[in-house]
Amino acid sequence: MPKVAPAEQAEFLNDAPSTEPATHTVLSSLRERILTGQIAPGSRLRAEALATEMNVSRTPIRSALAVLSAEGIVQYSVNRGYTVRSITIGDILASIEVRAALEGTATRLSVDHGWSPSELDLLQDCALKGRAIVDRGEWSVEIEAEWYELNWVFHRAINIAARNPVLRNAMRMTILSPVMGDVIHISPVVAAHVPHRLRQIPATPPEHILQSQAEHEAIVSAIKADDSLTAERLMIAHVMATKARVHAMATLR
């Protein structure tokens, strides 16, 4: 993905958050730190300490904690305040299943509403750049991060093109694992259940990436053909493939 997107595409991807900018920044940072295990389950989240650490006032911290509580990532009690909730692999598998239904709906709605040429160019560009990456035949931590950045833009573009803020808000409730990478590698909850040998980065593109890339291309084709039902079906299967892979790897003990 180009580091600087064309202005129209950048504005499209920068879908206005439903929170104040300061709260949105704090929220994104705290969510990522919790989901990647940088802030451990059971940790108390004190607004004063976090405000000092993040160099912001307590107001965006408190607003972000309230959102994270609604999302189920943290929990609140009168005696202890906010603490990081212990998320299980079952929670993550369940969230993927719900996200599959929501992303399928978003994909169908995006076709029903119609894509502008600029929006469709962005989506197709993601698929083309992803194809170029896997066709190089090499794989590493850095290459994987590059591919998953495109993957994030691909899914975000479709979700925004659905033009349904209620649907996007519902989708945020399903984010119980990091989104900018392979859940097997960057979610400590999942990694704890997967044998070490299955978490190694291979030298060539892994099978699940090749499959996912092909699915992206099929979804783009369905969208370009204005086939909303096929696009929806393909997206649901695409997301559910992640659940099947996590379940299979986590039970291979």
Characterise this structure:
This protein has 253 residues and is mainly alpha-helical. It has two domains: 17-84, Arc Repressor Mutant, subunit A, CATH 1.10.10; 89-250, GntR ligand-binding domain-like (Four Helix Bundle (Hemerythrin (Met), subunit A), Up-down Bundle), CATH 1.20.120. 66% of the residues lie in helices and 4% in strands. The protein contains twelve helices and three strands; from the N terminus they run ααβααββαααααααα. The protein has helices at 7-13, 21-35, 47-54, 58-71, 89-113, 117-135, 141-161, 165-172, 183-186, 188-191, 207-224, 228-250, and strands at 44-45, 74-77, 81-84. Residues 1-5 have low confidence and may be disordered.
How would you sum up this structure in a few lines?
With 253 residues, the chain is mainly alpha-helical. It is 66% helix and 4% strand.
What is the number of strand segments? Answer: 3
- List low-confidence stretches: 1-5
Helix-strand pattern: HHEHHEEHHHHHHHH
CATH topology of the largest domain: Four Helix Bundle (Hemerythrin (Met), subunit A)
Q: What topology, given as strand order, has the largest sheet? A: 1-3-2
Helix-strand category: mainly alpha
Number of domains: 2
